[in-house]
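can u do me a favor
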């Protein structure tokens, strides 16, 4: 029973920190990976973690794998650490915002 409760808590935390929709994240991954003359295939755009976050956003809670849970924990930890006001500059920092957006978190969204 505790595994189900832990999974539910992680699911809630993940969806709290990942504030971009799957469509927004997919578009961002394509844009962030595009070069001046080339653009990757849509399913190959972005980092491996970014693509995994996108896949998780398209799943139901009951379809999560152990690898999904691991990535969800990493994303929650990373976004939480990077959004701590004592450790990071303001949300207007473009490089920081882009790193967070690769994980599905846009600090400029309410």
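np, heres the sequence
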């Amino acid at each position: 029973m505790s595994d189900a409760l832990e999974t539910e808590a992680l699911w809630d935390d993940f969806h709290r920190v990942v504030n971009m929709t799957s469509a927004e994240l997919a578009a961002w991954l394509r844009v962030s990976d595009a070069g001046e003359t080339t653009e990757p295939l849509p399913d190959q755009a972005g980092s491996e973690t970014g693509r995994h976050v996108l896949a998780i956003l398209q799943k139901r809670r009951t379809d999560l794998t152990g690898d999904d849970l691991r990535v969800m924990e990493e994303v929650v930890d990373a976004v939480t650490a990077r959004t701590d006001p004592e450790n990071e500059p303001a949300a207007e920092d473009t490089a920081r915002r882009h790193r967070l957006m690769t994980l599905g978190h846009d600090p400029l969204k309410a």
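The radius of gyration is 14 Å. hope that helps!!
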